[in-house]
Amino acid sequence: MSTDGHAARGGTVFDIGYQGYNGERRGRHYARDAVYQNGIRSALGLGRSTRAKALPWFFIIALSAIGLIMALIAGGVNRYIGAGTAQALNLPSHSDLYGIASIIMFAFGAVVAPELLCPDRRDGTINLYLVRPITGGDYILARWASFLTVMLVAAWMPQVILFLGLCLSDADPMKYVQTNWRDIPRFLLAGLVISAYVTTLAMLVASFTTRRAYAAVFLIGLFVISTPFTVGLASEMKNVTGQWISMFSLSNIPVHVNDLIFDDVSKITEDSPARRLAPWIRVAWCAGWTAVPGAILWQRYRRMTP
Length: 306
What we know:
By secondary structure, this protein is mostly helical. It contains 13 helices and no strands. It has helices at about 25-45, 50-80, 85-90, 95-110, 115-125, 125-130, 135-170, 175-180, 185-205, 210-235, 240-245, 255-260, 280-300. Helix 7 (about 135-170) packs antiparallel against helix 9 (about 185-205).
């Protein structure tokens, strides 16, 4: 005790190096761009372990392999039997590719999309994003755009491979391009439709859980179960009711729009009663299944605060 009756006090001051930030403040645009770039890296497993890279690149390679196999078969038939033989034999081409690859694309979205949302919410990283000059709406828009970019690469790559394969296998590649160049804007637009649809649904499901496995299993189950259930039920009703029931086959919704874009019928939808509905109904149905889940997703994050 000290002589004045008060307890002696002591302490040590430590300089732990805190400094103010005097650099450039780039604002919301830079922050959104950083979240977007980080989303692409997360979706592709870049900068992470080999295990993290395995699944996304497996799906991308598998989709590309479909385009390559189709190109080799159709190109070989045209070269060794005669030009136009592949089309005469009704071999799968650009209009069929998305129908054939749709299940792989849905699985890709179901497995990879949760990587962009679930860890941030489980680990509380989302709170660190939101103390920066971005809102919850900025965050989810950047994440959605990043995964849409990855989905577009996965969707367009096999189509580009198929187009190049058919072009190079033709006796006159330049003539092939002049004759078939319209396939390019068609598969780009159809790829955008299916990518936006899968991206939005996958990210909406992922926004309701912090467990990536739960989101992936639920979404894959939703896509896989909806097709046989709706097709079986619709086949029992040979009227407009059956046509509308078949529209709830989630894996077929964007493929119907693909058929309209190519003015053709893909293998996956040729027996679907929904094909008899008016074109504008099929387009509006797909747009609704993309826009409404997207609005719900944005609303869930818009008011989020740290």
